[in-house]
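Marked as duplicate of an earlier ticket. Keeping the data here for the record.
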Amino acid sequence: MAVTSDPIADFLIRFKNAARAEKEEFLAPHSQVKEEIARILKEEGYLWSYEVVREGTHAQIKAKPKYLDRTPALTDVKRVSRPGLRQYVGATEIPRVLGGMGIAIVSTSKGLMTGHKARRENLGGELMALVW
C-alpha cells in the first residue's frame, strides 16, 4: 500500500468513490481520527455502519455507505484543512454547509464534532471537511 501525505483526505475520497460506484462497503487504513470521522458520518446518516477490522498487523475500517433508492446519501465531500495549509475557525466562523443540509467536521479541544454541535458549545478549531 502506498504512503499518503494526507490520510484523512484518502479516507474521505475512498468513501466518495465507493458511494458513487454504488459499492456495498469499502476499506481504509485505521486511525483514531478516521474512526471518529466515520462515527460522525454514521450519526449524520451518510453511513449505514462501520467497524474496525483487525487482521494481521494493520487494522482497517470497513464502512458501508448509505443509499436511498440506489442514490448515495453522500453528494460530495471537500477536505478543507490539509497538511500544507491548516484552516482554523472560531465558533462563529464555522460555515453552514448548503444552508444546513450538509455538515462541517471540526476538530475541537473536546474532540471531533459537527459544526452545528461546535457552534452550540461555542467551540472553534480546525475545519477538517465539509460533507453534503
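See parent ticket for discussion. Residues 90 and 124 are 4 Å apart (CA to CA).
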